[in-house]
Design a protein that fits this description.
- It is built from five helices and seven strands; from the N terminus they run βαβββαβαβαβα.
- The protein has 201 residues and is of the alpha/beta class.
- It has a seven-stranded mixed β-sheet, with helices on both faces.
- β5, α3 and β6 form a beta-alpha-beta unit.
- It is globular.
């Protein structure tokens, strides 16, 4: 790009920017996913886990976890020249949920990450987005050593509506995480189209 114009002489494209939340229980891989896919160095608000937090931070199944997000993670990814996603990873513990309403304002959609070893940890996030009619995709983070289940088994276990996409992913892998983000955008656009049809019908 030279002097604000592309080499072909066309003006630069002004991208559409969309806000996506990455939510789920404590230690499910939200920070990892944002970091894997972000094209900028992600902003992280992590603090070390301490003995004082042990009674409220259940690290069962994630005993190797040493830090936790206390405000949010922030990253950015360009899906196309005209489409940029801003990613906001939410804190997983109940005591930080007062931040969720602020983070959810203006969000196009969300990823709810789940760990099959602790599926119950994502119920609160599912409930949050369902109550606010924010489109979301269930991303099942396939941890090493965790049992693998078909997407439909996870859907039934979580009692998700048929219209909610369930995607198996590896939060550490950029391409895998990117696929989940693409599904969120597609799902949110489909939901918006349904609402428009209902309003005009």
């Amino acid at each position: 790009m030279i002097f604000g114009r592309t080499e072909r002489g066309k003006p630069p494209v002004e991208p559409v920017t969309l806000k996506i939340l990455v939510a789920g229980g404590f230690g499910v891989g939200k920070t990892t996913l944002v970091g894997a896919v972000s094209e900028i160095r992600p902003l992280r608000t992590e603090e070390m886990l301490t003995e004082a937090g042990r009674p409220v931070d259940d690290i069962s199944g994630v005993e190797g976890k040493k830090t936790t997000t206390v405000a949010m993670d922030f990253g950015r990814i360009t899906l196309r020249e005209d489409l940029v996603l801003y990613l906001f990873g939410t804190p997983g513990q109940d005591r930080f949920w007062f931040l969720w309403d602020e983070l959810a304002t203006g969000a196009l959609g969300a990823i709810v990450l789940a760990d099959t070893r602790r599926l119950e940890d994502c119920f609160a996030a599912v409930d949050y987005f369902e109550r606010r009619s924010i489109p979301f995709v269930m991303g099942v983070n396939c941890f090493e050593g965790a049992a693998r289940y078909p997407a439909e088994d996870v859907r039934r276990a979580l009692d998700l509506d048929e219209g909610v996409p369930v995607v198996l992913c590896d939060a550490r892998d950029r391409e895998s995480a990117k696929e989940v983000l693409i599904r969120v955008v597609q799902h949110a656009m489909d939901q918006a189209a349904v609402r428009r049809e209902a309003a005009t019908g």
